[in-house]
């Protein structure tokens, strides 16, 4: 008569669904029974995890601490030193003046042997190279190829000269190119600073065009920093390329060059600094850094210490958990711990 | 008189519109709810029961020759309608259908039909969109979600040059992705609806073409109002049509309305006498006739109209119309005229979309979203205020500072460059920080939740344990957004009949003449084969269903002994065979010599009784309007049906007047014991009455439904008198129903008691076990039924709802005061203290006696919506079990509301009939049983399934999983995005609060939609904390959901604190490690990106319970995908960060930082997890250990589904 009538009348066994059965097909997936691993945190796993972490972290901590300690670093903050006594009260006027002699000499003592290459960095502090106004003020198209020379979007206020012709490279970043220079001498003998290959190879090859030449650069009324030789293409201006890879933090180093001779302990290095760059208007500081490197980079004890602390902590935790587990043992998966078994009075 | 008539009309209209609710008026019924009873009274205007008397026509009259002297002759066929319907229909025909509100249909002339109205064609459209409107409408609907507006505003804000923190594309992308995914999902669903519509609209029907003078086939979509259609047997009805003629000369047609209301039995429809003789057909292509009917409405049980034929006006009622969606059965053909088409058909007007509800978890989630907005605003305020302070402090410096360049010197005039004063800058900084930190509100969460729910629904539908073999129905997920509510249910409100029981009535025993015959243990087809198989004219007639018989009774009947008891037994079964409205249908089987007798009727009880009578040898073979043929123990006899008083709720009984072959006239009455004992002649058979009462009591305490049968032989005078009165009453113009009722009451008196029957309403498979587990899970089960108290209690015992150690509080009062008193008594006796103060006192005072409250519908009338409600609530909530009997449908909803309005607990209502609709809609989660009683419950429900016992796997397994998964996913999404936002925030503190981000804009945009989205969805769909077996074995595990253990403010705060710590690790470890180095912004950003993605994925990995290959693939795959994405982004020459990742990956520092971040970030969480899991284990944790260590699931036993439930 009808399907429902059929299936309800008669004995249950006779109920044969007419047509196709809608019974869902069985598969381990649809029944949510895929084979699976069910990890649980047993005491053994917890303790061995902590032990494992200790074993990993403590050696790494020692290794990186040692590496960091082996790095020899000479840091000289010259922003105040390099201003003559009489100008100390008006640093801004000193730095902005075009007539003052900005050269400044200082003797540094090498504390330990420094193996070549010794990296020469300048370090700026309080300079927000990551300020939103600043990081966006560039045009990568213009930097890359000649055909986009007129492309100066985002570059304002250093986009065009007053007559409208484009500034190459445009934008605040290029405009504010660092222009202090350093020269080194030991016992009157000049030490060469190699300024080649200080920028990323990828930047030189792909980001800064070899056919793009500086144009109208630093010709405005306000000079932000270094000038560029208009006859050299941008890809050769490694200082600019380094500078334009904007720093992550307001306190940063940038590679100035490399000294490719070993420096031995207690040698006296005479540094002559051309103190041109204006950090005085924003209370920024300038440092000269000579440093060797290791596999973990420069001198920084933090990571080594952090690893040791974490490793030590894990060791303590391993011991602590062992003590806890043995003082208050619990049989895993004991049904008598279930709340309704524990407390038969109900809930 | 005038007033009376108006009342009748009023009633008719009321009934017409409220039948769906009135169907189960428990209190008015002699025995349980409507659906199993002679339905007549419950829904008068349906007029669907085969009313044999109403079919009498001259033709039948002529044939009625066996008892000519008692046959009733009547010129007007309507005169003899004994039902109230007819009087109502009559009354309604008096009412003029004003032309202004009526629809005019010219029969056979669609052209001139109601030119005032623009009638829709017969094409239906369930699809929401057309290709043209898809985009605007879908977008409009999607933007109903407030969060999307938020993201849109932010995206627009970002387009302004001043705030352009992100590039244009980058800011739109996440929103676009989310909108696109949703749109694709919607489009697919709509495409499927389009396809279904197309198939439906192109079906073919035959329509009378007046010019060609023949029926031509026409597509459904082209059928118009007024056209005359011919529908053949087993065809679907294409539109709502008024019947004009049928293959039956009396104008009867049978339809099956399963698609419409789900009732599986056949309904009878009539063509009007005036049209049956001369229908418009090939011979008379043009029919004159005008139908006036109501405007289209949704009431499938009501229709009001009249038809002008040959100048006469004939009234039309709901029994004259067949509706789209029905199927014609057992009738060779019908001819009808289309009155409502397409979207105006009642089935279309009734098709409502799935209910939209919001899950508890989502509501709670909104609270946390607000909290997150608070955090977001706080971060933005900090940044913008600091920005202001910084600028104030450096006011002088900014003039020349190379990185700021406040002034534009390029022109001669001195103006500021992009600087609007500190106030404005602060304001801008605020807006920009909103843009930068926007993902604090997780945009992908909404779409993830939808996808996860889709996946969960897929698994619920596909679960073989939720498939019902007997009805071939799968689990249905009708509401997609409350899956996780299934894991938090605290109260289950269940209907009884059809939900707990099968609604499959089975005759169990009888008491005849005070003697109990309940030895029926053997099915008759094994034993007394000859009774159910009849041999006549080389044909074997078999009963479709056989009943166990009592051998003693069979012997008694077959011995033909003329003892008093033997006569009584024969009359008893004769009464059962004839005192009903069952239509026997003879169905051919594969064997041409074998026929099957199928009894069709509205009431399962009557069916059971007729099958029982047949099994005992009284086989009802034929029923026409004037006579019935019964095979009495092999001897075929013809009885005239002289009169029939239908069942109604006042009398609670029905009666027939039968002219027997021996020329006697007998009145057979059957009805509920309460109504029958009042009309039994008490002076005689006193002993029998007493015995019968005892037996009845025994039956009802077994949970059987009882009906008492009585007889009286009518004397000639008495009959003539009745006949006269009956004819008068039937022809009365006004108050006919009342007169007929009075007549019935008048004749139904001084009965001899024959006996009583006990019918079992069988419990569904696995119900007691299911109820037991549900109660163990801390869920309170309330059963709401229309049954009388004794039946309800006995069913309560048989399904283990009630146990003998329970103290029963019974409240059945007839007045407010007594209600109040019994409630207060209960409070006093069981020392119930309102739950608000001191439950410790309560629990000790109660001395742990489980309480059961039994309350009936009459008492509820005085309680619900009065101040007594509070008392009832107090009593009911301390009771373990509540049983409400004789409740009306609306009261069911009232009881659900009693709990829902007073507590925060989640409620679930489960039912199968139209009477449960209100309850299902009221409860937080409504479940429909797709069973015998129709689809209305299913249509109103959020989920539908085949059996009550599926509630156990549904709640304990799927509900638990859904809740746990969804809760975790929401928390994880909050955590994941806030980690990211905090990293950005820490960095901003070192950029002079200028809102630079080290992480590239693309990464921050892709973070929540690509880098980390997939694993959460996979885990949200697939992870399971415990296996199915464990969850079913320990129902108590379900309580974690009830107590909001997986999602609460405490967990949220902990997660947020964790996220702050992790973000500190991610930002400050590199910060301290790279402080005095040459690192550039992009490299640091890449390090952060990788670190955060790895960290959040490890975090997820640590919380995953089950690692299958999909989980592995998604989690590790996501990390790999992120690395690839970062590499791709860093390979784009135009971006400032190009090649950074390759440079930084070459350094040892990078890898050390990464390792350090992951370990330092995860350490606190790992420690907490190890501590709590070992020293403060939750039940779930212990069960997990059980599972793992005792190898509960180790062997491949998982495929065997819960043996306790599948085997009775």
From TrEMBL, chain A:
Instruction: Using the UniProt annotation, give all residue ranges assigned to the region (Disordered).
Output: 1-26, 140-160
Residue ranges with Basic and acidic residues bias: 140-152
Question: Transmembrane segments in this chain: where?
Answer: 40-62, 302-325
Keyword Protein biosynthesis in record: no
Q: What is its main location?
A: membrane
Please, which domain of life does this record's source organism belong to? Eukaryota
Sorted alphabetically, which InterPro entries does this protein's record hold?
CDC50/LEM3_fam (IPR005045)
Please provide the record's keywords in A-Z order. Answer: Membrane, Transmembrane, Transmembrane helix
Q: Which GO terms describe its cellular component?
A: endoplasmic reticulum; Golgi apparatus; plasma membrane
Task: Say yes or no: keyword Chaperone present.
Answer: no
Q: Name one Pfam family in it.
A: CDC50
Subcellular localization(s) per the UniProt record: Membrane
Question: Which family does the record assign?
Answer: Belongs to the CDC50/LEM3 family.
What is the protein's name according to its record? ALA-interacting subunit
Which source organism? Answer: Canna indica (Indian-shot)
TrEMBL record, chain B:
Q: Which GO terms describe its molecular function?
A: ATP binding; ATP hydrolysis activity; ATPase-coupled intramembrane lipid transporter activity; magnesium ion binding
P-type ATPase N-terminal domain: residues covered: 116-171
**What catalytic activity does the UniProt entry give for this protein?**
ATP + H2O + phospholipidSide 1 = ADP + phosphate + phospholipidSide 2
Provide the topology term for how it sits in the membrane.
Multi-pass membrane protein
- In terms of superkingdom, the source organism counts as Eukaryota
**Annotated catalytic residues:** 495
Q: Which SUPFAM superfamilies match?
A: Calcium ATPase, transduction domain A (SSF81653), Calcium ATPase, transmembrane domain M (SSF81665), HAD-like (SSF56784), Metal cation-transporting ATPase, ATP-binding domain N (SSF81660)
In the record, biological process GO terms are:
phospholipid translocation
Q: List the subcellular locations.
A: Membrane
Locate the compositionally biased regions of type Acidic residues. Answer: 1-13
Note the InterPro entries from the entry. Answer: ATPase_P-typ_cyto_dom_N (IPR023299), ATPase_P-typ_P_site (IPR018303), ATPase_P-typ_TM_dom_sf (IPR023298), ATPase_P-typ_transduc_dom_A_sf (IPR008250), HAD-like_sf (IPR036412), HAD_sf (IPR023214), P-type_ATPase_IV (IPR006539), P-type_ATPase_N (IPR032631)
User: Which CDD domains does the entry mention?
Assistant: P-type_ATPase_APLT_Dnf-like
Q: What is this protein called?
A: Phospholipid-transporting ATPase
Q: Which organism is it from?
A: Canna indica (Indian-shot)
Species lineage, top-down?
Eukaryota, Viridiplantae, Streptophyta, Embryophyta, Tracheophyta
């Amino acid at each position: 008569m009808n399907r429902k009538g059929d299936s309800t009348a008669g004995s249950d066994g006779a109920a044969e669904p007419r047509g196709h059965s809608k019974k869902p097909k069985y598969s381990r997936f649809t029944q949510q029974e895929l084979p699976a691993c069910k990890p649980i945190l047993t005491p053994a796993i917890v303790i061995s995890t902590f032990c494992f972490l200790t074993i990993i972290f403590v050696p790494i901590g020692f290794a990186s601490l040692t590496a960091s300690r082996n790095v020899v670093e000479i840091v000289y903050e010259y922003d105040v030193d390099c201003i003559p006594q009489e100008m100390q009260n008006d640093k801004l006027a000193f730095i902005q003046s075009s007539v003052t002699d900005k050269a400044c000499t200082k003797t540094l003592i090498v504390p330990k042997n420094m193996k070549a290459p010794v990296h020469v960095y300048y370090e700026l502090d309080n300079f927000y190279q990551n300020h939103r106004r600043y990081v966006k003020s560039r045009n990568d198209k213009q930097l890359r190829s000649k055909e986009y020379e007129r492309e100066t979007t985002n570059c304002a206020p250093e986009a065009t000269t007053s007559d409208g012709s484009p500034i190459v490279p445009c934008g605040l970043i290029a405009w504010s190119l660092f222009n202090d220079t350093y020269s080194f001498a030991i016992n009157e003998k000049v030490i060469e600073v190699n300024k080649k290959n200080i920028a990323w190879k990828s930047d030189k090859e792909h980001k800064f065009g070899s056919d793009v030449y500086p144009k109208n650069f630093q010709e405005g009324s306000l000079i932000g920093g270094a000038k560029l030789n208009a006859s050299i293409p941008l890809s050769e201006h490694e200082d600019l390329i380094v500078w334009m890879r904007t720093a992550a933090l307001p306190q940063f180093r940038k590679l100035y060059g490399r000294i490719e001779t070993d420096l031995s302990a207690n040698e006296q290095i005479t540094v002559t600094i051309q103190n041109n760059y204006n950090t005085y208007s924003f209370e920024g500081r300038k440092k000269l850094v000579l440093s060797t490197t290791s596999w973990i980079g420069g001198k920084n004890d933090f990571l080594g210490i952090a690893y040791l602390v974490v490793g030590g902590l894990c060791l303590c935790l391993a011991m602590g958990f062992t003590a806890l587990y043995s003082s208050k043992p619990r049989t895993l998966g004991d049904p008598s711990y279930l709340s309704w078994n524990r407390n038969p009075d109900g809930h | 008189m005038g007033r009376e008539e108006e009342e009748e009309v009023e009633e008719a209209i009321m009934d017409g519109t409220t039948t769906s609710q009135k169907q189960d008026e428990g209190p008015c019924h002699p025995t349980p709810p409507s659906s199993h009873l002679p339905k007549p009274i419950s829904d008068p205007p349906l007029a669907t029961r085969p009313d044999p008397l109403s079919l009498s026509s001259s033709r039948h009259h002529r044939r009625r020759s066996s008892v000519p002297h008692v046959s009733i002759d009547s010129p007007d066929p309507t005169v003899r309608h004994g039902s109230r319907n007819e009087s109502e229909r009559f009354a309604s025909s008096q009412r003029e259908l004003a032309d202004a509100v009526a629809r005019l249909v010219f029969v056979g002339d669609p052209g001139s039909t109601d030119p005032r109205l623009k009638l829709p064609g017969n094409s239906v459209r369930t699809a929401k969109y057309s290709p043209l409107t898809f985009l605007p409408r879908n977008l409009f609907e999607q933007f109903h979600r407030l969060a999307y507006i938020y993201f849109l505003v932010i995206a627009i804000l970002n387009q302004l040059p001043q705030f352009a923190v992100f590039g244009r594309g980058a800011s739109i992308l996440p929103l676009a992705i989310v909108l696109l995914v949703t749109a694709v999902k919607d489009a697919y669903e709509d495409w499927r609806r389009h396809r279904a519509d197309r198939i439906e609209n192109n079906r073919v029907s035959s329509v009378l073409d007046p010019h060609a003078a023949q029926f031509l086939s026409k597509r459904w979509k082209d059928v118009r109002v007024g056209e005359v259609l011919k529908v053949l047997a087993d065809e679907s009805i294409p539109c709502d049509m008024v019947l004009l003629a049928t293959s039956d000369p009396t104008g009867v047609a049978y339809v099956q309305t399963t698609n419409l209301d789900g009732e599986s039995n056949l309904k009878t429809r009539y063509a009007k006498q005036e049209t049956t003789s001369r229908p418009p057909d090939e011979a008379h292509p043009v029919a004159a006739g005008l139908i006036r009917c109501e405007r289209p409405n949704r009431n499938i049980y009501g229709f009001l109209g009249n038809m002008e034929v040959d100048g006469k006006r004939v009234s039309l009622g709901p029994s004259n119309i067949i509706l789209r969606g029905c199927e014609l059965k057992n009738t060779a053909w019908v001819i009808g005229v289309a009155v409502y088409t397409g979207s105006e058909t009642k089935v279309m007007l009734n098709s409502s979309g799935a209910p939209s509800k919001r899950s508890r978890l989502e509501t709670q989630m909104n609270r946390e979203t607000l909290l997150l907005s608070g955090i977001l605003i706080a971060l933005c305020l900090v940044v913008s205020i600091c920005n202001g302070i910084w600028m104030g402090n450096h006011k002088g410096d900014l003039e020349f500072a190379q990185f700021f360049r406040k002034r534009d010197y390029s022109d001669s005039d001195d103006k500021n460059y992009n600087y609007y004063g500190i106030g404005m800058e602060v304001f801008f900084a605020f807006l920009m920080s909103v843009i930068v930190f926007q993902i604090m509100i997780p945009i992908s969460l909404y779409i993830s939740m939808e996808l996860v729910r889709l996946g969960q629904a897929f698994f619920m539908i596909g679960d073989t344990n939720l498939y019902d073999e007997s009805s071939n129905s799968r689990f249905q997920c009708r509401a997609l957004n409350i899956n996780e509510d299934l894991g938090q249910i605290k109260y289950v409100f269940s209907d009884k009949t059809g939900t707990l029981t099968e609604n499959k009535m089975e005759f169990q025993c009888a008491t005849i003449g005070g003697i109990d015959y309940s030895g029926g243990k053997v099915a008759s087809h094994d034993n007394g084969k000859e009774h159910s198989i009849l041999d006549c004219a080389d044909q074997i007639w078999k009963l479709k269903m056989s009943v166990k018989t009592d051998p003693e009774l069979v012997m008694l009947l077959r011995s033909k002994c003329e003892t008093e008891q033997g006569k009584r037994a024969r009359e008893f079964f004769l009464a059962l065979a004839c005192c009903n409205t069952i239509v026997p249908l003879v169905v051919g089987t594969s064997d041409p010599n074998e026929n099957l007798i199928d009894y069709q009727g509205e009431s399962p009880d009557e069916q059971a009784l007729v099958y029982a009578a047949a099994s005992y040898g009284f086989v009802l073979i034929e029923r026409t309007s004037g006579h019935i043929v019964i095979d009495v123990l092999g001897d075929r006899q013809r009885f005239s049906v002289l009169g029939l008083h239908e069942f109604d709720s006042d009398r609670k009984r029905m009666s027939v007047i039968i002219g027997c072959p021996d020329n006697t006239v007998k009145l057979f009455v059957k009805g509920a014991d309460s109504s029958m004992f009042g009309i039994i002649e008490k002076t005689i058979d006193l002993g029998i009455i007493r015995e019968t009462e005892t037996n009845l009591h025994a039956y009802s305490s077994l949970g059987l439904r009882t009906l008492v049968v009585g007889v009286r032989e009518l004397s000639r005078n008495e009959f003539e008198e009745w006949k006269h009165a009956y004819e008068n009453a039937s022809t009365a113009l006004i108050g006919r129903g009342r007169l007929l009722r009075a007549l019935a009451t008048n004749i139904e008196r001084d009965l001899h008691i024959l006996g009583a029957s006990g019918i079992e309403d069988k419990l569904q498979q696995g119900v007691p076990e299911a109820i037991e587990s549900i109660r163990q899970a801390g869920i309170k089960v309330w059963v709401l039924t229309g049954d009388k108290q004794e039946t309800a209690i006995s069913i309560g015992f048989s399904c283990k709802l009630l146990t003998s150690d329970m103290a029963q509080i019974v409240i059945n009062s007839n007045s407010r005061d007594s209600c109040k008193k019994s409630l207060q008594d209960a409070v006093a006796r069981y020392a119930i203290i309102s739950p608000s103060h001191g439950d410790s006192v309560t629990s000790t005072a109660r001395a742990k006696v489980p309480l059961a409250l039994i309350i009936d519908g009459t008492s509820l009338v005085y309680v619900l919506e009065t101040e007594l409600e509070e008392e009832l609530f107090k009593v009911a909530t301390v009771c373990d079990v509540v049983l409400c009997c004789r409740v009306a449908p609306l009261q069911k909803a009232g009881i659900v509301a009693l709990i829902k309005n007073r507590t925060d607990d989640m409620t679930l209502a489960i039912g199968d009939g139209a009477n449960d609709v209100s309850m299902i809609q009221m409860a937080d989660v409504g479940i429909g049983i797709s069973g015998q009683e129709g689809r209305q419950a299913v249509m109103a429900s959020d989920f539908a399934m085949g059996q009550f016992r599926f509630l156990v796997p549904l709640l304990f397994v799927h509900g638990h999983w859904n809740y746990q998964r969804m809760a975790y996913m929401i928390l994880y999404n909050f955590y994941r995005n806030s980690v990211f936002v905090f990293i950005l925030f820490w960095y901003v503190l070192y950029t002079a609060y200028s809102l630079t981000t080290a992480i590239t804009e693309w990464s921050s945009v892709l973070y929540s939609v690509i880098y980390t989205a997939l694993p959460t969805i996979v885990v949200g769909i697939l992870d399971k904390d415990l296996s199915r077996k464990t969850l079913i074995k320990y129902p108590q595990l379900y309580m974690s959901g009830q107590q909001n253990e997986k999602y609460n403010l405490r967990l949220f705060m902990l997660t947020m604190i964790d996220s702050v710590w992790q973000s500190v690790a991610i930002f400050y470890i590199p910060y301290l490690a790279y402080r005095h180095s040459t690192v550039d912004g992009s490299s640091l950003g890449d390090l952060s990106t990788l670190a955060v993605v790895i960290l959040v994925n490890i975090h997820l990995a640590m919380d995953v319970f089950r690692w299958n290959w999909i989980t592995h693939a998604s989690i590790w795959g996501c990390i790999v995908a992120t690395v690839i994405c970062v590499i791709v982004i860093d390979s784009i020459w135009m971006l400032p960060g190009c090649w950074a990742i390759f440079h930084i990956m070459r350094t040892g520092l990078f890898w050390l930082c990464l390792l350090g971040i992951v370990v330092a970030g995860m350490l606190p969480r790992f420690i907490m997890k190890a501590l709590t899991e070992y020293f403060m284990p939750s039940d779930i944790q212990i069960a997990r250990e059980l599972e793992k260590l005792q190898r509960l699931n180790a062997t491949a036993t998982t495929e065997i589904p819960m043996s306790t439930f599948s085997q009775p």
